[in-house]
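Propose amino acids for all 124 sites.
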């Protein structure tokens, strides 16, 4: 086989997508808005000092995106920042709660899909 003379394109971003998180998207967005655009280390500090139920899956996803950047794409961990982060609707579980006189009312248990994109400072 002949060697390729073309240089392989370097990746400029690392992504992590977490699906079916059992936290509502609205609760996720309250925390996500605090760390959007921040350095990864600063985001860790914010998340570690926050008392919300959605912090655990968000922290896990940011750490996974950082690991993807460092291990797969040889990026420097200290230069990473959160370029994009958003939570969308996931599937919904439909449940029923019994009410008075034999009636029932519906309950929607919502789930989220979280996407984190990390980039190196200085790249657009």
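Proposal:
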């Amino acid at each position: 086989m002949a060697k390729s003379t073309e240089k392989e394109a370097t990746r400029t971003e690392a992504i992590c997508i977490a699906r079916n998180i059992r936290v509502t998207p609205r609760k996720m967005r309250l925390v996500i808005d605090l760390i959007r655009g921040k350095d990864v280390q600063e985001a860790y500090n914010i998340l570690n000092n926050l008392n919300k139920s959605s912090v655990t899956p968000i922290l896990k996803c940011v750490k996974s995106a950082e690991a993807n950047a460092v291990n797969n794409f040889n990026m420097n961990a200290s230069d990473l920042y959160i370029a994009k982060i958003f939570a969308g609707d996931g599937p919904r579980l439909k449940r029923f709660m019994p009410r008075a006189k034999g009636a029932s009312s519906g309950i929607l248990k919502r789930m989220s899909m979280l996407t984190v994109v990390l980039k190196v400072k200085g790249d657009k």
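The mean pLDDT is 91. Helices lie at 25-35, 40-48, 55-73.
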